[in-house]
Queue: 2 jobs
Job 1
Amino acid sequence: DQQVKQNSPSLSVQEGRISILNCDYTNSMFDYFLWYKKYPAEGPTFLISISSIKDKNEDGRFTVFLNKSAKHLSLHIVPSQPGDSAVYFCAASVRGGADGLTFGKGTHLIIQP
Amino acid sequence: DAGVIQSPRHEVTEMGQEVTLRCKPISGHDYLFWYRQTMMRGLELLIYFNNNVPIDDSGMPEDRFSAKMPNASFSTLKIQPSEPRDSAVYFCASSLWVRGRTTEAFFGQGTRLTVV
């Protein structure tokens, strides 16, 4: 049973446009959500997080939106840059991360010049 | 800090052999996690430690897998005997408990294990 789902295995976006990556979850006990970025042959690197008490968090070009009623979160990247091409993982946890993270299977974002 | 350090980066071994993966977490972090990434299952949590104590090993696939954390700066994941289906990338991550939740987990670069 996949508790965190990223239904788009890949996404292609033109440089300068907005990239929107989506994530759905099923466990209503999740209280902390994160996005990680991963390049080939490297470990995932943290991008941005959001607590379940918020519905939006911004950090520079990156914004995460959380819709608890729909059990849905999204990552917006504006404007998209070539260096953003990577695999993006959505992750969720209970107890503020103390029990480890449950990951989605990732979305491969390709930024076209 | 150099970040989470894993060794070796690559490991190729024959079926039936013992494999030991190593991890040095970020100094001061009190949580350590072992994850495995495969094409089929994605990134999955195997086991985690808090203050060097194993808390939850329900993600360990079989008794062939074991993990230890003898001190705050070192952990091992051992597979004995190894099988071809254990081929995967194994990641170690660490984090710190601060004000009611952990910080984001910092990941090592991973160990790519191939069992032939």
Job 2
Amino acid sequence: AQSVAQPEDQVNVAEGNPLTVKCTYSVSGNPYLFWYVQYPNRGLQFLLKYITGDNLVKGSYGFEAEFNKSQTSFHLKKPSALVSDSALYFCAVSGNTGFQKLVFGTGTRLLVSP
Amino acid sequence: ETGVTQTPRHLVMGMTNKKSLKCEQHLGHNAMYWYKQSAKKPLELMFVYNFKEQTENNSVPSRFSPECPNSSHLFLHLHTLQPEDSALYLCASSQEGAGGRGNIQYFGAGTRLSVL
């Protein structure tokens, strides 16, 4: 069965600094990997996904993620954080079930200070 | 707006009440989902409907009863809930093709449920 681990409950970063939110996964076969963001009182919003091809995936709002097969990781990154990036971030994986079934991590709260 | 609307946004109910959550998607998608979001836990997939047919029921207690009358609407009927059922209930939709993987799910804002 597929699983996702987000080892950090919270990440703190100063505005303008680079940020990284970590995610590792476990799945048989080739993974489909996703990042979603949740702002207060909102549902989850899609940021980016990796299916195949270039290991560096670019997404919305200047975010990108790097797929590393040997380390089974898919860390979310942004070169320069904004206060408005403060939110809850979820990593998710879809495995070889033949139907879209996303397994989510526990989420990482990103707090960007001015 | 994501094109997925959930009502009500907030719901308080007693353990003996019966209530329903509603979800409507305006995206023309063919798959809809119910998730439960509790603090510090992964999102829990509860039910999946693909072309109006239920394809997934992740050992959800029978006090939760889904209904999908058409591909645009999804309901979650609630009865005799427990306090531990208090959570944010999220609805999502996606367009599923033959491959069935890699498709983006679009989420509603959720219903915050409190069971007293």
